[in-house]
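Quarterly update from the structural biology core.
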Amino acid sequence: MQLTGIDFLLYGAALLILLVTNALLVACEISMVKVRYSLIDDEQMERLRKNRRVALLLDRSGQVAQVLRFGVLMVTVGLGLVLLPLIFYLAGKIGWFAQQPGKSVLFFLAYILAVSVLSIFGFVLPRSIALAHPQDTLRFSSKFVLMFVRLITPWSALLRSCARAILSIFKLPLNQGFNVLDYEVQIRAMGEEDVTLSPRIRNILSNTLRVRELDVSDVLLPRNQVKYIDIEDAVEVNLDMARETGHTRFPICEGDLDRCLGLIHIKDIFRQGDHQVDFQRLTRTILSFQEATPLEEALEQLLQHNIHMAIVKDEFGGAVGLVTLEGILEVLVGDIQDEFDGTETAMVHSLSKEDFHVDGLTPLHDLEEALGISVGETEAATFGGWITDELGRMPEAGESIITEAPPLQITIQEADEKRILSANITVLPEARDGES
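Predicted structure, tokenized:
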């Protein structure tokens, strides 16, 4: 390939632009991981989000991460295309490798040089800077990256559509979310280079990262399962209900859950004496959330106010259920049983070797452990959420479903308009064959 001096300068400028572009893309993604998964306080985050461009990147992290990875791939290919003619030009100037075998060596050298230059200046250097100064790096790179994202997003979206169509032929889902980053990589981004994770801890980390994708409706206790103290009932009726359920906290209502006045703790009743109870005088404050409230925000509010329970309301103000601090924590660590919980409270009941009765709120990792199966990659946290995602709709009571991966026959026992309450599962033989 013949190049003039001007061509050489243009190729050199292109090489520099590609290296800088790759460095900015890598630095931006690493700094986003560092900021998002490291423990910066609320004041630092608020200052960081005052930069409008940074706030946009953080709010659209899933879309941004996909485009960044696509951009790095584009730059890598472009770097090879630019380096090759440059190397041939320089080799020709000094009379090296004029014969055909020499040209083959040049191709190899171009490849090695491209990888080396890109590794040092495109990855190692920007990654180190981003880890050391994540907030400053994110502010600096945000202007360029946001412009790059706007330019590349349409083409990236088209490619994802093509990839989805191709994967559908093989019955595989397209999963390109931001959380596809390996959890151990995220921990190393926070400086924990030598961490070895047990399966249980990996599960907890997986669930913790998934919390950002959940809202209150994913973990609420449905209205028809809520036990509450009704001030319109006799004291003895309410106390009998409290003794029967064994709960420590109850909403206190006037007639029904829509008219919730607050919450009451059972120890306050004991202090006052069974027959002298004035429920309204013992009422404590209760929070309320909309169904679409992010689960992370609900957890923060409950911890901030030292409250273990909140009412969940729909867009019309009607109560649809309860969310509890324990319920949110169970999304992270699985079912929490104390010394007073009997086997009757288990969420997975074995009916026979292959048949099980499953509560709709059963955490997926508990279901997998109990049934000896693997449901694969999914954003759902509970059995009910997984089935709803698989179907793309809410199933009806009595409906029978057969899943392919893993092979299960599922018969819905109870369901309302918002969630699956319970189901019977038969594990088909090939489900466990695939696990062996």
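The longest strand covers residues 256-265.
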